[in-house]
Amino acid sequence: MGWRGILGFDYGIVQAPLGPDISGPELVAAIANSGAIGILRAPDWESPDYLRELIRKTKALTNKPFGVGIVLAFPHKENLKCVLEEKVAVLQLYWGQVTKDVVFEAHRAGVKVVPQIGSVEEAKSAADAGVDAIIVQGHEAGGHVIGQEALTALVPRVVDIVGSKGIPVIAAGGIVDERGYVAALALGAQGVCLGTRFLATEESYAHPEYKKKLVEMSKTEYTNVYGRARWPGAPHRVLKTPFFLKWRNLPDDENEANQPVIGHSMIHGMEKEIRRFAGTVPNKTATGDIESMVMYAGEGVGLIEDILPAAEVVKRLVEGAQTLIQQRFTSV
What we know:
This protein is an alpha/beta fold and about 325 residues long. It contains 11 helices and 14 strands.
């Protein structure tokens, strides 16, 4: 079953690379040490020396394999080179076409390639490129959402296409507990990828107020209000905070570029201004008007009741899925 592992890991559980720096070395190492797949998020600008430092900090905290996620919509050539030189276990790619050349270079370095896709067409292209697994993101997912289809409709279609090629499918979008895990396995996935649930962990680098909102709030909305200038054409799912509800109908010609600065943050070693409507979530270093900053979350956020250690999240997923299948779906 899916909890028995994929890609050489103990369990079929993947922590989504949480941007811009929320999935740092502490979170990734904790997940790796628990037997699941932890993924660092590379900077959205070329910074190979800093990325190398992140990777080595993580290696100092775990002797288990882990991955690095790169968003192809931003400059990434040097960062990609760094990932391959450091020979991390997994290269996760998103928001761009995965080419055969990239897969070839990664495989030559001993790195597995796992893209995240949001459509059948993307899945076919990734499979043709020779990837090692595919994360299928449903419309329910938090953060930037690349597709329009629900997970329950998209996963089986992708499984039907790539299953015969031996490519594991990993389901992502709205999954936070063992019930979502088992449902994904029933759809044909061999693993699950969780973002919001791992965002709400002790090791996550998210601001405490952001984590608090993930526990307190239960409603999200798919929108394009945030980060229009920096990442155009990248819709996202966010918490329905009071600030968002006030500005949810922001005119299409408005964006963060000419808005007032509402805070500051250190992101991947660089001091950054955070403007109103920016697509930057508050990390631990963020100061200013935190409640007016974007807070991404998937539709499963209403099932999150507490902030847990990352290893406890993995343990509950694995043991809960095993118990659920044995008690509810196994013939006596």
